[in-house]
């Protein structure tokens, strides 16, 4: 029974903290537009430039036409 005197107030404090964080995020507009982020990946125009990397960057020909085998 004594454990309940400690765990219930701790649970209430944790729940209050998460409620405060949720309200703060809601006021900042984090939940206003939930549709467009999932479509944003379709509108990327170019791949990021890779400098000083061991893997070669994708060439423009490979990106537009796809991989081709010229044997």
Number of helices: 2
Radius of gyration: 25 Å
Segments where pLDDT lies below 50 for 5+ residues?
Answer: none
The computed structural class is mainly alpha
- The coarse overall form would be elongated
Summarize the biggest pleated sheet: none
Number of strands: 0
Order of helices and strands: HH
Helix content: 40-55%
Note the beta-strand portion: under 5%
Arithmetic mean of pLDDT:
79
| First-last Cα distance | 79 Å
Description:
The chain has 71 residues and is mainly alpha-helical. 45% of the residues lie in helices and 0% in strands. The chain is elongated, with a radius of gyration of 25 Å. The chain has helices at 2-27, 60-65. The model has no long low-confidence stretch (mean pLDDT 79). It has 2 helices and no strands. The chain has a domain at 1-28.
